[in-house]
Design a protein that fits this description.
Blueprint lengths: L6 E9 L9 E15 L4 E5 L13 H13 L6 E7 L9 H16 L6 H12 L2 H9 L2 E6 L4 E6 L5 E8 L5 H6 L7 H20 L5 H4 L6 H4 L6 H7 L7 E4 L6 E6 L5 H14 L4 E6 L7 E2 L8 H10 L1
Parallel strand pairs: 3-4
Antiparallel strand pairs: 1-2, 1-11, 2-4, 2-5, 5-6, 7-9, 7-10, 8-9
Helix pairs in contact: 1-2, 2-3, 2-4, 3-4
Bound molecules: adenosine-5'-triphosphate and L-homoserine.
L-homoserine binds next to helix 5.
Length: 322
């Protein structure tokens, strides 16, 4: 059953590598991408907004290719598509833009053909495409995700984010691709550093699951990727060390960077002081940045049902201003 009228989905952004959870711990954020996919006579793209500037508008586009992988897996041919997208998620900044595109395309393509694949199957496919499960797991399931991948099957446990958790992100005005940021990492780490991270990732997972925000500052520390990536985001090392003195309950590089994320407790937050601290440190390194106060998003990718006669852009504008 192909839904000739097309489908629309909304997908949250995500932060990966939460603290010590390199390639493992992710959290969905209330910043979104919207995607519409319809069967068409010839493939055409409508990409709206600055965040999608420069992306290909032909069959080499990630969204098109990912949608085709769903049709192939389900044995249903839908070769030509009309694809519309708008995104508030900045591209290549560490807020999971590629994961939101992959999850959005998988979810929309599956809906378009009557949902033959389960969410778990989509998770396996998304992880195989992204190569780590934390961003895609968060965008697909929402909330906080602790996930593992054996190269074929991805397994995730979803944790409901603590009510009081707020998130401040500082998004530097430059892009840093995951590929480039991974090249900065060593091939091997010491047993001491492995234990350092395993112990903190376990503590952080337990702390977030049980609402023990007082444990987050110690539990957020990492030795597996942030020290090696520090030179790629000047000022980051100082922010991670000192943010708790300015009202954060913990801070981390978001995904592969360059965005820096600070967690705060809504009941006890010195918002402006923390924001100014982040901006001042980055500015002292010659980096301008945009800050956003976000919250964990408790929902993953979902269909949005609206009157079909309204244009996609009208719908998106309505959502954005809602
Ligand atoms: N909507 C989209 N349509 C097509 N391709 C996209 C889209 N969004 C992202 N991409 C692709 O993903 C790339 C960015 O992926 P990358 O993993 O480097 O960064 P990120 O996902 O924004 O951050 P991180 O993975 O660190 O959280 C873009 O350069 C582009 O090739
Ligand atoms: N875990 C990934 C996140 C970015 O996709 C990395 O840090 O390389």
């Amino acid at each position: 059953m192909i839904r000739r009228e097309g489908v629309r989905v909304k997908v949250p952004a995500s932060t990966a590598n939460l603290g010590p959870g390199f390639d493992t711990l992710g959290m969905a954020l209330n910043l979104y991408a919207w995607l519409e996919v319809k069967p068409a006579d010839a493939t055409v793209f409508h990409l709206y907004g600055d965040n999608l500037d420069g992306l290909p508008k032909d069959k080499s586009n990630l969204i098109y290719k990912v949608a085709q992988s769903v049709f192939t897996a389900a044995g249903i041919a839908v070769p030509e598509l009309e694809i519309s997208m708008y995104s508030d998620i900045p591209l290549t900044r560490g807020l999971g833009s590629s994961a939101s595109a992959i999850v959005g395309a998988l979810y929309a393509a599956n809906l378009l053909i009557g949902s033959p694949l389960t969410r778990e199957q989509l998770f396996d496919m998304a992880t195989a495409l992204e190569h780590h499960p934390d961003n895609v797991g968060a965008s697909l399931y929402g909330g906080i995700i602790t996930a593992v991948w054996d190269g074929v099957r991805a397994t995730a446990l979803r944790i409901e984010p603590p009510e009081e958790l707020d998130v401040l992100v500082a998004i530097p005005d430059f892009q840093l691709s995951t590929t480039a940021a991974r090249e900065a990492l060593p091939k091997q780490v010491s047993l001491g550093d492995a234990v350092y991270n395993v112990s903190r990732a376990s503590l952080l997972t337990g702390a977030l699951a049980s609402g023990r925000l007082d444990l987050v500052a110690e539990a957020m520390r990492d030795r597996l990727h942030q020290p090696y990536r520090a030179a790629l985001v000047p000022g980051m090392a100082r922010i991670l060390e000192e943010a708790p003195r300015h009202g954060a309950i913990g801070a981390a590089l978001s995904g592969a960077g360059p965005t820096i994320l600070a967690l705060t407790n809504r009941n006890n937050r010195q918002g402006e002081e923390l924001r100014n601290f982040l901006l001042e440190v980055l500015q002292s390194e010659g980096i301008s940045a945009t800050t956003l106060w976000l919250k964990p998003c408790t929902h993953g990718a979902a269909e949005i049902t609206m009157e079909q006669e309204r244009s996609f852009l009208d719908i998106v504008k309505g959502e954005v201003t809602a």
